TrEMBL record:
The keyword Ribonucleoprotein does not apply. This is Bacterioferritin-associated ferredoxin. InterPro entries: BFD-associated_ferredoxin, BFD-like_2Fe2S-bd_dom, BFD-like_2Fe2S-bd_dom_sf. Transmembrane segments: none annotated. The keyword Electron transport applies. One of its GO terms (molecular function) is 2 iron, 2 sulfur cluster binding. Residues 2-51 form the BFD-like [2Fe-2S]-binding domain. Keywords: 2Fe-2S, Electron transport, Iron, Iron-sulfur, Metal-binding, Transport. Pfam families: Fer2_BFD. It comes from Acetobacter senegalensis.
Amino acid sequence: MVICSCNRLTDKDVESAVAGGATRPREIYASKGCKAQCGNCVPGVVCLLREARMKQVQAGLMQQSAPVTALSA
């Protein structure tokens, strides 16, 4: 889905940037070599950024809480 028509920024671009370490909207734009133009997309970018970061946190918590099984010799 296109989030920013000025820069052709998509939801996949946001997810990719977050996976690459982006934590702020400007870092999302920078990952595509652009910046916010008219600003109408910024709320959507922020929302997707929060969602993607939350998924990262949840994935990390799930990995930490995975049961450890003992191997018997």
